[in-house]
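Lecture 7 notes. Example A: sequence first, then its structure tokens.
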Amino acid sequence: MLVVVSGKFQFDEEKSAAAISYLASKRIQGLSKGKICKLIFLADKCHLVRYGRPITGDKICAMKDGPVPSGILNMLNRFLADPADPAVAILSESVSVDRAYIHPHFQSDDFRLRDFLSDTDVEALDATIARFGDKTFSELRAITHEMPAYYKAWNDNRPHDSPAMDFEDFFEEDDDAIEAARQEMLDNLNIRKALTSIASV
């Protein structure tokens, strides 16, 4: 279950691993670490503006290559460094890596983590794959660099190296955004902030 903590969504490692595995099972061309990060960011954004929550709950950082889900990036880096690392065991059981490329490619012959994803999670992932799956990393980098939420975080919060992007900004200039979803997200975040404040007294 995805929750929010102190005004932010909480990173869900199981749902994140399931999203990675789902992408890897779809035979997406050139599915590198960078491309996975871009596609999951886009899927999180897609789900957020429709349903008021992202899929993974990851913090999205504005980096030089565009928006990056930081928890996903860390998970993939640990997996590439040591697939036997217990911290990424859930990925090791469902995803393999083809290291014949400069940027290793991810693949999965058997998607086993469906129980961690809701129907709307899968819907958002499928919509993202249909729209962006055939794009190269360079093309995805260019597309995400143009997004208002990235532009705002990158320019307003420098000189921080990787400032966090504001989830509310994801609704700007998105034709698929639903105002009720935006309001639900804000209501949930405000309720959590209030509960956190009460608990700290």
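Example B, a different protein, same format:
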Amino acid sequence: MVAEPYHLRAKYRAVHQRLIEAYGEPVWRPHVSPVDRLVSTILSQNTSGVNRERAFQALKAHYPDWEALVQVPVAEIQALIYPAGLSSQKAPRIQQALRTILHQEGRICLDFLQEMPLPEAKAWLTSLKGVGPKTAALVLLFAFGRPAFPVDKNIHRVSRRLGLIDDRTSADRAQDIFEEIGDPDTFYAFHRNMIRHGREVCQAPTPHCAICPLQDLCDYYNNRVRA
């Protein structure tokens, strides 16, 4: 059973501090434009970072700007992003998203999301076909530094083992929980460090509990391993 919100907030803070001690504190800075982040994030779905980057760079190299991509045959986009997988789904979704932005703004720019109330910004992004809560949160957090908390498979797995969420909690619901219990100023660092911890220590299917800096905070370790 997962603890009540008060205890979850304390546990979140303790895990956050321990991860900073282990990995340092990542500092948010905008690396790419919001539209670049949206396209890249759609490409990243169900593929590796390497394949996503290959597909993204192929688009950037082939078109002078995102406006040029709006009018081309979708099969052309599909061929360019083939390395990212699911190109028959991702190509029309990317093109339609760009068309929607162009139609609404008169140019392909997402800067209007910076000032939009956060629930409305999430709703606007998730109204785009192929953009779910995780993709919307990634765009808002990474492109704008806004307090949204994307939950990937690593964060979902580590959170279940720690006891921050229970085994029945979906990734989308976990996102809501973290946004409720966490300090918004910690979201970027916590997100990055949880992913690193999941990749390097709390791996699937077998976590490396012997070297984990979160042992005393972890339900999985205390209920199964140490017992």
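Note on Example B: Residues 34-144 form a domain with the Endonuclease III; domain 1 fold (CATH 1.10.340.30). Residues 5-23 form the longest helix (19 residues).
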